[in-house]
Amino acid sequence: MKIKLLYLFAICFLFLNSTARAQDSKLKYQDWVYRPNIKTVQFENITNQDYATIPVFSLASAEELVLQFDDLNGSTQDYFYTIEHCTADWKPSNLSTIDYLDGYTEDRIIQYKYSFNTIQQYTHYTLAFPTSTMKPTISGNYLLKVYLNNDPMDLVLTRRFYVLRQSVNILTEVKRGTVIKDRSQTQKVNFTIQHPALNVSNPMSEIKTVLTQNDRPDNAMNNMKPTFIRNNELVYNDMDSGTFLGGSEFRNFDTRSLRFFSQRIQDIVKEKKQTDVYLFPDDNYSATAYSTIVDLNGGYAIRNQDGGGDAEVDADYTRTHFALKDTPPTTVGDYYLFGKLTDYQIKDDYKLAFNEVTQRLETQQLFKQGYYDFCYAFVPKGQSVADVCPVEGCHFETDNAYTIYVYFRPVGKRYDELVGIKRFNAKAFFIMR
């Protein structure tokens, strides 16, 4: 009887475990990490500085994207990958792989290195893409999927990327918002698409646009409609579209060296199994005037000034402690750590909790040594778009990085072709005061 009960218990445990894994591994068509042992996922163009911070490369070019991530389990795993073509709004395009892929439909990540002289042991994986065995053949949006042991259901991470066939010219401008009451807080983006190389019959349905601020997916503006249609030219300057809250320049912290305290670090506590970095408590900037500072527009760079010159494997991980002052908790929403270091995601992992003793909102996160931008964001209950203004303040002068993506899908075509990208900074259009 006991044996039967143990057997039934084991079956139930395996079933529940597999169900939980299936739920955790449910495919998301966005940048996502499905396992807690996977950290510091980077996916960038290393050959074209115009797109250095976004994963895009030109079709049939020598440009290359590099995927990097760390596995904190410290052992080697059989990580496989594949890609899927997507629509302009990041849904499956339902094309067959033979329609968009030359070579294998999946392959194994074979390049890895073990961490060296670090408290936190990890294995660093690298994939340069496209490869000689897998190349996209058409432009558009793609999703890279990494999974374990040749099992596509056992997802590890997903990353969006873009394949470009530049066929249009994009003219841009950034100015103060047009709504009088919000002019001190907002930035208005106008742009013009020149398309003499494309035969556009119906611009309203054949051309799609996406406008992003600092590569954030949550507040991206999709499928804006042209205000004026001219000969081989589409003008987007409607008063009611293209307006973003300016926000403020990002905060930062610097852990490139754990021997010396950088400007934002209050204390470093080294123990046998962990290093804790305590940042000075942050002020609430919601009521302060604009202050200019050079930042990475929300990004980060992995560096180690104490190591042997290979930060990929000699940069250690630290438990970094954040504290936000003068911001009482509220029942109408929550505060989060926010930036590229969180993949611009609103997840419970990055939520700030109120400490009754210190009377501050706090969180602690594991980050690899480097230089990081970050900010604090408020998310009202039931919403998914982060609002940085309640903590960071909002100013029209802020230097934000904007990117415009242009897609073309004429009648009869089965997919959205990416025909233009333009990246530009607001600072180039403003005289800083």
TrEMBL record:
It comes from the Bacteria. Residues 38-164 form the Type 9 secretion system plug protein N-terminal domain. Keywords: Signal. Residues 1-22 form the signal peptide. It holds the Pfam family T9SS_plug_1st. This is Type 9 secretion system plug protein N-terminal domain-containing protein. The lineage of its organism: Bacteria, Pseudomonadati, Bacteroidota, Sphingobacteriia, Sphingobacteriales.
